[in-house]
Amino acid sequence: MATDSLQNDHDLIFQQGRSPWQDAWYRLKQNKLSIISLNFLILMVVIALITPWLAPYGYETQDLALGASGPSIQHWLGTDIHGRDLMTRLMYGGRISLLVGFAATAVSLVVGVLWGTIAGYVGGLTDTIMMRIVDILYALPFMIFIILLMVVFGRSLLLLFLAIGLMEWLTMARIVRTQVMTVRNQEFVSAAIVTGLSHWQVISHHIIPNIIGPVIVYITLTIPSVMLLEAFLSFLGLGIQPPQSSWGVLISGGVETMEEYPWLLIFPGLTLSATLFALNFLGDGLRDALDPRAISDR
Description:
About 75% of the residues lie in helices and about 0% in strands. With about 300 residues, the protein is mostly helical. The longest helix is centred in the middle third of the chain and has 37 residues, at about 85-120.
């Protein structure tokens, strides 16, 4: 018993000596599912980065004489109706899908954090006007807006990033505004203002660092929704166009031939599902790690 008590005291001292970020990482490591998901996502990103050197074929390479064939030694995941290697197209498709997910989320992050921070920090009439604009934008049919952009300006990858990102920033702005309004009333912020710091210094050095936890969690939840939206647009034929591929394009093609060539739907569907599950599991783990009360309440 004495030994256990000493060990607990040692652990408590060790925990007290850690920074909040080190403490959050320690809690995250206790969640095995989140760590497995993190490692899986890192693996997917690494594969996407080195795909041009790792892929066994070019993404445009096709063998019309071979056509659609099942998994084999030469083509581990089979080929599509044009004789293109499915594993190669999955790897190149991952580059597009992950890029859309991260880039569009980055757009929503920048716009949402700036908008929510200004509204929450300034308050008053400025806050009211800015949040009413958010409410109005929420009421607009953004999916139709994105489809119209794609039809009028063409299927541009950059336009896809901007369109999806500018649709996803609204919720980010609301979350950030709520967090800023809570932190703004804390004593350390009042002390920083009294010392003569500028508004930008107060925001950048005291407010944003204290709201970054919920923002990180929401980012991990935004990326899956963006990837699903890209997959939906590709399914409608408004996303990435052949010979380029994304997981949404591959799933769209697999649906058309699922009865004859089921592997064309199964493998892209499993890849996208596994990635989305990993992002959600990581988001749950980060939520618990960055909010110790979530663990103590269980």
